[in-house]
Design goal:
Elements lengths: L8 E5 L5 E5 L7 E2 L7 H12 L17 H8 L3 H4 L3 H18 L9 H9 L5 H20 L26 H10 L5 H12 L3 H5 L6 E2 L2 E5 L6 E5 L2 H9 L18 H14 L8 H14 L4 H8 L4 H23 L6 H10 L1
Antiparallel strand pairs: 1-2, 2-3, 4-5, 5-6
Amino acid sequence: MTRMRLKFVQAFIDSYGTARHYFRRPGFKRVPLPDLPGSPEFMEAYQAAMAGERLVGGIGAKRSVPGTVNAAVAAYYHSLSFTNLAPISRYQRRRILDNFRSEHGDKKIANLRREHIQVLIAAKAEKPGAAHNFLSAIRSLLDYAVKAGLRHDNPALGVDKPKQRSGGFYCWTEADIAAFESRHPIGTKARLALGLLLYTAQRRSDVLALGRQHIRDGVILVRQQKTDAMLAIPIHPRLQEILDATPIDGLTFLTNGKGRPFDPNDFSHWFKKRCREANLPPKATAHGLRKAACRRLAEAGCSANVIAAISGHRSLRMVSFYTKAADQERMARQGINAISPDARGDQVTATEGHN
């Protein structure tokens, strides 16, 4: 079996002859990795370390002036409200708040007012999703600031959430899926990526962490990074066909050109190119396949709870959107078929006979 080199992993043999592995990435915590590379314990710890855990404040953190945005953000990173988040959520929130304090770090956290936040939200109006995530991060930061006695109120609570685009991410159609499959046959990495996304209904980050070690007796085991939920998903026959036909040498099913696990953003760029090769709409993304998987389940008559058991959605609001749409179309078809000429043949003939 080909031995795979994992990025930022340092390995050595200690004085007792035991193999030791550490995650060492510039600007991040030094993290000991349990067991051996390829084991579920090792890969879970490695993926968590890759997802975040940047050192608080970095160089110069000790020079943060008490009462400033810089100091509040650094302290917030040590709070339970932050550390209790899933690794991927910590990583995403840290990116938002690090950008915020790079622009406003020297200002007093107590002087931040509602109108300031509204201006910052308005500047992101063209990207409702980014504006929504920014508001959530600022609300959490200011909630911590109130609890820590850094200010008396949370002005972000009075700011309306940005209006999200109707429908959110583009949901792949059956024509989109067929076009991609036609361009990328079984046995290619692109088809493997599509199969994993479409037949597990998981997020990009969770699919990228999957490998042979997560399969047990025809079931693929997924621990979702965002929710920490553990899912057991039976492998679809088509996905099994793809797995059997695709060469897989690494610890994860999907690897980059160097044989290492994909960085999520790098994967998105790579997958976007594969979509362009299949002449798909520009808005077709990896996340849209998660929506397509939920759509297919709804159209097959699955309930919202059944779909959520596969996708891992905590809220049934989005899942219910698919089931309602599928039910509406199904009932509309039944209604139109009921009054079609074929269905009303005898009645139409009888009526015409009286004229």
